[in-house]
Each structure stands twice: as structure tokens, then as C-alpha cells.
Amino acid sequence: MDKIESLQNLLDPKKIAVIGASNSKEKVGGIVFRRLLGSRRRLFPVNPKETVIEGHKVNSDISSLPDDIDLAIITISAKASIQSVESCIKKNIQNYIIVAGGFAEVGDVGIELENRLKELAAEHNINILGPNSLGIFLPDENIDTIFVEHGDKALDRNGRVACIVQSGSVGVEALGYAANTGFGMRAFVGLGNKCDLDEIDFLHYFARDEKTNCLGFYLENIERGRDFLQLAKAVSKEKPVVVLKAGRTKTAVSAVSSHTGKLAGSDNVINGAFRQFGIQRVFDDEEFCDATKVLSMLPGAPGNRVAVLTAAGGYGVMCTDFIEKEDKRAALTMAMLSENTKKNIKDATFSFTACENPVDITASADDMMFSLSLDALIEDSGVDIIICIAFFAPPGITENLIDIIAQKIKKSDKPVIVFTKYGPFTDNSIKNLYYAGVAAYPSVGRAVRAARFLVERTKIKKRLGLEI
């Protein structure tokens, strides 16, 4: 079994040992153990000071564990973690998640401990995630080792984005917030200090995973840079690869060193390399979530000509400004609508409808007018992408519009992105759109940026010689 195949038992374990499990709901071992109770996996708590935890008999030591444990989650201190791994190796355990900090990020003593973990991994062909890792979270499997609050109940159970993050807090906060408006995560992996398993291992794994169609990485350093780039180029032929690479300035590079105990590379070199190897770079956590969301929900755009449909003229003008603004990521242009399209829209709406692009059917429009106008834009061969500005405040617009747009998207070979606001109900409206299969955003700028991500994806595929 190669290393990538062996990760199956880390990400989909049948038997899990929790070293340091506790009856205390405040201790990390107690939190992790309770999070795993809903996983439908067999759990084996280990703690010499406990006898029973949540109805599970506690093993007094590691030697009393069965011989076929798939994953050991070690929730005790840094120094004790080393001893636990050594004991677990004698039980032939292949996979480890080490939660504790206090390794390379704290100086010489921690570096020595982390080097010992590296030696154990190499000598015994085991997989170690961490140390200083929040572990894994697979919503559809109910496998969750994250001991901090992370919006787990709000995430879609059928998501397709694999999120591999070096900083657990960046991942859980960004994804937890994104879940407020709908986000589909296949898996979360907290890399931590990367003493053994790193971004390349999980790039390999999720490239093969049928449930994953988009990979997102938050990284502060990339030690095997050339290998990562070459593999990402191969993977991006099939699945988008999005990277948020932190540590862009001199001061931030210094912060990376203190956070992870490792050095980060030149940002200019990294930026050029990402572009060359088909990686879509993002620059903050909001972009990370917006990009992976739209790329997992919609195919790349056939071109960059955008049509805007709105019942609020001012937002149509604002959207046009965003579309025509220069952007290094991908250029967009306003589509020139055919005379037939304009006639069909006017026939479906009002004599006073502004049928040039942006199309403003005014606040007097109703659901059917919006529906027929959207049909006309989808059928126009001069349109590649449609941005719908869908508001629910006008009296003729109802929440039925969500299903109307969703049905159009299923039949359209062109991506349709929605921008909507509905006062205090905005997040809920966007979440309802998401669950209907519609990529929606709460601002004009974010909706237009989502369109750029799709055009950028198409450019990458063309550059890699793929058919569009």
C-alpha cells in the first residue's frame, strides 16, 4: 500500500483511538472524543485516570488497545505525544493526528521534539498529521476532530470542496462564516507544522477522490515547491486548484517563521509560478471561500462576455463598473445583446424596459418577467456569463424566483451568478439559493469577482491544452 492509499484510513477510519480522552468537557481530549460520538466509528478512549467516558470503556494504556486501530488522535502534551507515538507503533497503528503545539514554532526544544516525529514517520512508514493540527473534518461522514467552534452544523453535508489549511484558525473561521450563506465542504484537513504529511500528500489524495471537484489550500510555506507545482498542474486539468498563500510582505514572512518555525519563499516568484502551473491564487479568506464555492458549483465560462439582468437600475450600473474595471485576474466585458434578445425581453416585460446591457426590467417586474428575460439572455449566442441581480423586495418578486433561477441553471450551458440583498434576510436568501444549486453573493463586487474566477479557470484549461 503506498502512502496515498494509506491515507484512506486516516480520512475514513473505522476504528479510532483517542489518546488523552477525558470526561472533562473542557479538555481537548474530552471535546475531540465527544465530537466523534456521532461518527458511527468504533472509538477507543485511552486514559489511565478514567474508567468510562460517555458509555465507552476506557483503555488504561496504549498496549491494551486492539491490534487493528486505523487512526490514533493524540490530544496530550508535546513531550508525551512522542512517547505515545512510540507506543502506538508497537500496536502497528498507521495514522496519527497530533493536536499539541509546542514543537518547532517554540524554538530549539520544540524543534528537537518535531525532528523525533519526523524520524519515527520515516523509520516506520507511518502517517503523521501535525503536530499543532486541528485534524480533520468530513461533514458527510460525521468525522470531526476539531476542538474549537467551527460552524460545523451549518456546512452542507454534500459539499465537494477539499480544504487543506496550514493554519487551523484561518480555515475554521473562514469556512464557518461562509457556511452562513451556504458552502459545501467535502473535507477539512489541518496540516499544522507538517512534520510528515503535507499539502502534496493531500493534493494527491483528493485528486483521486470522486467526491471532490475543487481543492483549496491555505499555505504559509511550501517546502517541496517544484513537486507541488508539477502535481497541481496535472490535477488542475480535472479539478480547480485554489491557493491562498500568506506571507507576502517581509514582515509577514517573519510572522510565518514564528507561527510555523519555517521560512516562506519570495512572493513574486510564487505568484508567477502559480500562474504558470494553473493554480488560481486568492489573497484573503473571503476570496478563498468565494472562489472555491463558485468553482465547485459551476463550470468555467465559455468566454468573458457578461450580461446583467436587474430589477434595480442603480445596481445594474454599479455592476457594469465592476465588470469593465481592469483586473489582473481575468478581463470581463459587457455583452452586446442581439436585437432579437432585446425584442424578446421587451415583449416579456414593459415597453419602457431598458433592454441594453445591463437589462433593467424595473421594480415593477414580477417572477415571470424575470424568468422570460433570463431565458432570452441564456439563448443569446453573444452572452457567455449572466449575473442576475435578484431582489425580493419588489411586490411582484417572490421567493419562487429562487426555484426559477435554479431550473434555468440546470438547463443552461452558461454560468449564472446571482447577487442579492434582502435586508436582514440576506444571508438566508443566499443560503436558500445555494441549496437550490445557485451560486449567490451578497455584494456586486463579489458576484463579478466570481465571474472572473470562472473566466480564469477557462483560461487555465486552454493554456493546459484542454478542450472547453
Would you write up a description of this structure?
- The relative contact order is 0.08.
- This protein folds into three domains: 1-132, 3-Layer(aba) Sandwich (Rossmann fold), CATH 3.40.50; 133-297, Rossmann fold; 299-463, Succinyl-CoA synthetase domains (Rossmann fold, 3-Layer(aba) Sandwich).
- With 468 residues, the chain is of the alpha/beta class.
- The protein has helices at 3-6, 8-11, 28-35, 78-90, 108-124, 168-178, 199-208, 225-235, 250-260, 267-276, 285-297, 313-324, 339-348, 367-379, 400-411, 426-435, 444-463; strands at 15-19, 42-46, 52-53, 56-57, 71-74, 95-98, 127-129, 135-138, 143-144, 156-165, 184-190, 214-219, 241-245, 280-282, 305-310, 333-334, 359-360, 385-389, 416-419, 439-441.
- The two termini are 36 Å apart.
